[in-house]
Amino acid sequence: MSVTPVTHSVPMASNRLPPDPGTRTPPGMILDRLARGATRAARITHTEHLPPRIGSHADWPAQIRPEVIDAIRSAGIDRPWAHQARTSEHALRGESVVVATGTASGKSLAYLAPVLSTLLDGSEAPNGRGTTGLYLAPTKALAADQRRAVRELAAPLGTAIRPAVYDGDTPVEEREWVRQYANYVLTNPDMLHRGILPAHPRWSSFLRALRYVVIDECHTYRGVFGSHVAQVIRRLRRICARYGSEPVFLLASATAAEPAEAASRLTGLPVAEITQDTSPRGELVFALWEPPLTELHGEQGAPVRRTATAETADLLTDLTVQGVRTVAFVRSRRGAELIALIAQERLAEVDRSLPARVAAYRGGYLPEERRALERALHSGELLGLAATTALELGVDVSGLDAVVIAGYPGTRASLWQQAGRAGRSGQGALAVLVARDDPLDTYLVHHPEALFDQPVESTVLDPDNPYVLAPHLCAAASELPLTEADFPLFGPETAGLLPQLEAASLLRRRTAAWHWTRRERAADLTDIRGQGGSPVQVVEAGTGRLLGTVDAAAAHTAVHDGAVHLHQGRSYLVRRLDLEDNVALVEEANPPYSTTARDTTAISVLETDTEVPWGDARLCFGSVEVTNQVVSFLRRKLITGEVLGETKLDLPPRTLRTRAVWWTVTEDQLDAARINPEQLGGALHAAEHASIGMLPLFATCDRWDIGGVSVPLHPDTLLPTVFVYDGHPGGAGFAERAFHTAAAWLTATRGAIAACECEAGCPSCIQSPKCGNGNDPLHKRGAIRLLGELLRGVPEA
């Protein structure tokens, strides 16, 4: 175990002074207790100590109303941190600004102070309603949490501030009141897209008075989702201009690279940035934890590590027994349910009162279920929570002592965001990253400098993606007829897309404007979460009860016939997936296994945009067509991950036009790398798997956002070729980022394979959990030699 002091601007504290450090168990002591025993201690590969930081105060700008300053003082905050004051200054000058500082650094107060002050000014205006503000959050939980915070902060201001949530959970009878009387509306991009903008005449008085638009957790708007949100924001700006308003955009982000550039791309406006975090921070102890190898063997006889799920459940159990308030972040809904269930079972063996103090939290729950869990976490009734990223984003869970992260969350920004959930009152905190049996996770726990000595990633989004832009042009035309004056707002692809939309009978040109002429709602053409298609309803076969929904894109892999589906600690087996009616019929069951879908993929090159010689090799970027089909699923033991069997499936293939990066090698290079024809397929396949696993280190993606294909002789290139593509129509910017960072990306890929201790390949280096070919063939040493030969041709910078 190594200890390296660093001084990163990551997790932080609120404006309140930290509590007496003697009132909590120091994070180092909590970690020592978790690591007791020789086998436990050996699992910690690295410990990073982030020292406490002293805060730097400033004064509020003179334009902030004294009543607002008094209300802030009543909340226990005497003076702002310097970054809060600077953010407010930009806002009051009418300049859009993004504040990108660490978790719990007081970003909410940085934008709330000018917003509340301006709303208070507006409440005294003779026209009655005065000014309004709009708040956008990526999740319903965050919007609800912010409403609570605004109500508490603005309570001394009386009825001048009227916050209200307007989302899918808002009762119909409340919606009219929100439209007519609320002056600070909290919603999400989905509701803005489907509910507010299409009905803008009913919102006219609110939009006419709109002064500020707050976009919280803006770093989450990346890839296809971020590209959709960027176009929704452009539609909002267009409608506001129609009513004579030009709102200022106030954005808040976790620490991010080039936040002003990303915020400008999101909003289409110039945006100033505040990046220096001047808040204090308690000590953070951050441990990297690698589960041990088991005696089991997986595909092709590869060694198998204990799962991150089982390891995280153990840690959550131990922390709960210690009385340490903990959130365990899990990547999947099923994983969150499973960790909570395992922890509850083990806690019951210790004390029958403890299982009730651990729960799961994820998307797909009913609104009342989510709110009850949030209240229980706030009150301390819950000691442990296994949560998906639905709880990652800004929800105030002050008082936590520890965070356990089950698997690298895909980006360093998300990692620090999750780690920052603990220690939010300024006290010391513990964070533990538990590695999955995966190339990237294994690489990171043995290369801590890749986490602790590197800046966070840039946010990748492409609003000009025609697959994204086209439905928003239709939605915009249905809101107000489109004219050439709108072209600069929606981007350079607009003029070329409109004739195509006319040809498809989606728009009709009359004189100088394009109109939406269909009866159906144009906003229903697209799902801004980038999933495509209607969600699949999960229905209990015996009762007809709706359990929840699954995104259309995930249905083939998540709720195929025979799949295990978890909901609130209960297991269900999918009896039938009806793709015509978008329904998965399930029955409650308790199988001793989980299921993992397998698929096959073919790819063809449509157009090569860029080609760069790497010696005799070629690195390319362009458009491709991918044909994918889920062909089977594996049954795995719940705790060990041991494969019990495989079952074939008969699902239709799906076609995707997207963007890809690919590289080719020549026969001479294969000879130089000592790769014979029998080894070639395995070497290419291994390099493909490992490169997909490593790409999230260089682009803001998850390995499930991208796919890959490797072919010993591809018909379009006539050479051995490896493709890595975006898993979204039109692309999401990930493959383009891979193209531009290819030298560093593929160098890290080769290093990850070479550093793995296994002999012939395992899930920690070259095996993929979603390989449709059963991870066969794979050739570890051939992949190392092949990548080495490829990288020898990298041109000098």
TrEMBL record:
SMART domains: DEXDc, HELICc. Keywords: ATP-binding, Helicase, Hydrolase, Nucleotide-binding. The keyword Metal-binding does not apply. It comes from Streptomyces albospinus. This is Helicase. Residues 1-27 are annotated as: Disordered. Gene3D superfamilies: P-loop containing nucleotide triphosphate hydrolases. SUPFAM superfamilies: P-loop containing nucleoside triphosphate hydrolases (SSF52540). One of its GO terms (molecular function) is helicase activity.
